[in-house]
Amino acid sequence: MELIIYLMIGAIAGFTAGLFGVGGGLIIVPILYIVFTQMHYDPSIIMHMALGTSLATIIVTSISSVSAHHKKGAVLWNVFRNLAPGLVLGAFLGAGIADYLSGQGLQLLIGFFAIWVAFKMFRGANVPVNPNHHLPSRSMQLASGGGIGIASAIFGIGGGSLTVPYLNKHGVIMQKAVATSAACGLPIAISGAFGFMWFGQQADVSAPNTIGYIHVYAFLGISIMSFITAKFGAKVAHLLSPVMLKKCFSGLLTVVGSYFIYQGLSQFGLA
């Protein structure tokens, strides 16, 4: 039964990853939080396990998603090369920061972050990309990659929530922004997952079937199914209009953000 749950999570997360370029983390984290809670794991590490496991699965999801986008020629590989070093360093550092934060604090951070991004994306859904806006210098892209990597590891995501708006703002159309974001999710996921494994082992996590903060069975079940369904999501992304993609993206973020804010406030006795 446990494996079936992980396979179902993977099916949904994979499709979402291909569709929005978000690596599926925004779906995986809240569902894993619920599943791990029902399995009566130590409440103090549940959120960290959800984040670490999410990043580990994004390694597989990203490979599947970026493969589909690359076949359509939508990935801006020169931009990826500029962002990647910062993404790797930032993601490992972000895992270390998350290790020091409480579960409730992480929930509130993720919740408000998701709501903020949703608002920004929805407000700009009908605003056409300005072709006169260009990406900044290579060094500035490197620095931006560092910031995106740190935040992505803390939030257990593939970086799409930040990479997509960042590229949009600098004149990249939605489909290419989503495709490039999917590629950027790979270095974030590898470095972030390694960080959660490392810091989790230092914390001596006692939950069964784990390596650091990564739950092995959840990783396997979600990865297997998400690898398959990510390709379908990527195909659908190229059939929808940029405006529709942005509105769907913001709607997803609003739901996830509201859930985590409620959970975080509840544990502080404020909701």
TrEMBL record:
- On whether Hydrolase is a keyword of this UniProt record, the answer is no
Where found, per UniProt? Cell membrane; Membrane
Keywords attached to this entry: Cell membrane, Membrane, Transmembrane, Transmembrane helix
Q: Name one GO cellular component term.
A: plasma membrane
- So where does this one cross the membrane? 6-33, 45-67, 79-98, 105-122, 142-167, 179-199, 211-232, 244-262
Q: How does it sit in the membrane?
A: Multi-pass membrane protein
Task: Family membership, please give it.
Answer: Belongs to the 4-toluene sulfonate uptake permease (TSUP) (TC 2.A.102) family.
Name the UniProt record assigns to this protein? Probable membrane transporter protein
